[in-house]
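Show me any protein, fold above all:
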Amino acid sequence: MTKTRAHVFVSGRVQGVFFRQSTQQQAQRLDVKGWVKNLPDGKVEAIFEGEEAAVKTLVNYSHHGPPSAKVNNVEVIFENFKGEFSSFETR
């Protein structure tokens, strides 16, 4: 299976709505490694690494997030897999 990495920026009402926590739960369920964090400008940034299908599923989840989120835009940059993470964390 092919492994990939996605660098994701999500904008909208994505802070204070459990976006990071729900993303971490989804990542752990999908066995995706990496991290997610809030940015000072109100966006959420994340790195997802793992099997291509699982990473794409998590990217798709980022387009809506948890029920209380309102996602306006998702920017995704696919990169070469680096394998630098052993887990998924909220920063």
About this structure: The longest strand covers residues 3-13. The first helix runs from residue 19 to 30. The CA atoms of residues 19 and 65 lie 6 Å apart. Helices lie at 19-30, 52-62.
